[in-house]
Amino acid sequence: MTRFSFDLHATDGAARTGTITTPRGDIRTPAFMPVGTAGTVKAMLPESVRATGADILLGNTYHLMLRPTAERIDRLGGLHKFMNWQRPILTDSGGFQVMSLAGLRKLTERGVTFKSHIDGSIHDLTPERSMEIQRLLDSDIVMCFDECPALPATDDEVAKSMRLSMRWAQRSKDAFGDRPGHALFGIQQGGVTEHLRAESAEALKSIGFDGYAVGGLAVGEGQEAMFGVLDYAPAMLPADRPRYLMGVGKPDDIVGAVKRGIDMMDCVLPSRSGRTGQAFTRHGVVNIKNARHADDPRPLDENCGCPACSSYSRAYLHHVFRAREMISGMLLTWHNLHYFQDIMAGMRDAIAAGAFDAWEAEFHAARAQGDIAPI
Ligand SMILES: [Zn+2]
């Protein structure tokens, strides 16, 4: 049986490119993972998500445990079969979304008790229960159950929360057990405080994980503060394991994170923005609802090979958005996911060629140029 492994092919500065091998297929890094919150990347068929170049999807433990429940997905053959995606899936631990979505939370050493945002029912989530749910989902990459303090927080609060997460990381590892072909990732916490990040990294390394996430970022601290942490945090984690930055981000966040040594990222942005009429392009964000597109026969991006750009005009995309037709969200989501995967492929090639700086300069120059002038 194929085991989970990570091979680094090349580095360029702190940027890295490699391959994560899993029994369900390879993941080329740097990798962007589209988010399939409730067993679907909204507005996309799984084969279309694959066609954009995605090697792996993210599933949300919090949503799936509430509806349709992990036990039901297990009875129906696991999440891959249930949602018709046979390639790797990473699941989060549920911790972050309990904090952001659920009501009436009670946090103790044992775990979290919360009220479902769907029907008000009461649930428990502990490191042990999170490992059980992610096993029932048959996730390929399992995340440790952790706590992310609400910002702003004092150093003392961040330290206390981080140490709780490190005790939960040990309990996650114990509950995960030995599952060949499946990986468990630890999550570094410590806010924006360097010595707490270091303490967290040491605690995780002494437990030992298949990969390591930089957690607690992309929670409203801003790009400058996030890059500030990424200037030192990835280097604290083992170089021979994948490094995952959770919940990032906008195209320039992604590029800046890869430049600082991140291998994997996920974000709802390309799919969520696609449903609200926002397209990410080489020249920045295009709001397709703007009247300037109403008579424009040109594609969103003439150099993009996605179906939205190959076969439809800006005028059509504008019309279906205004008419609230479902194809609007479908086409713009497809374009956005395609564009995000294009960025990843471009960075992988550039790192392999030792030309990341030149690629990055071109990326920023194209954005600075702005959208094509109205007709
Ligand atoms: Zn396109």
UniProtKB/TrEMBL annotation:
Domain called tRNA-guanine(15) transglycosylase-like: residue spans: 14-368
Keywords for the protein's UniProt record, in alphabetical order = Glycosyltransferase, Metal-binding, Queuosine biosynthesis, Transferase, tRNA processing, Zinc
Positions that bind Zn(2+) = C304, C306, C309, H335
- The keyword Cell membrane is annotated on this UniProt entry: no
Its pathway, per UniProt, is:
tRNA modification; tRNA-queuosine biosynthesis
Cite the cofactor comment.
Binds 1 zinc ion per subunit.
**The protein's enzyme class:** transferase
Report any one BP term from Gene Ontology.
Answer: tRNA queuosine(34) biosynthetic process
Q: Which terms in the GO cellular component ontology are assigned? A: cytosol
Q: Transmembrane region positions?
A: none
Cofactor(s) needed for function: Zn(2+)
Classification via Gene3D superfamilies: Queuine tRNA-ribosyltransferase-like
Which stretches does the entry tag as region RNA binding?
247-253
Q: How does it assemble?
A: Homodimer. Within each dimer, one monomer is responsible for RNA recognition and catalysis, while the other monomer binds to the replacement base PreQ1.
**Tell me, what does this protein do in biology?**
Catalyzes the base-exchange of a guanine (G) residue with the queuine precursor 7-aminomethyl-7-deazaguanine (PreQ1) at position 34 (anticodon wobble position) in tRNAs with GU(N) anticodons (tRNA-Asp, -Asn, -His and -Tyr). Catalysis occurs through a double-displacement mechanism. The nucleophile active site attacks the C1' of nucleotide 34 to detach the guanine base from the RNA, forming a covalent enzyme-RNA intermediate. The proton acceptor active site deprotonates the incoming PreQ1, allowing a nucleophilic attack on the C1' of the ribose to form the product.
Q: Which PANTHER family match?
A: QUEUINE TRNA-RIBOSYLTRANSFERASE
Family classification? Belongs to the queuine tRNA-ribosyltransferase family.
What is the protein named?
Queuine tRNA-ribosyltransferase
Please state the gene responsible for encoding this protein.
tgt
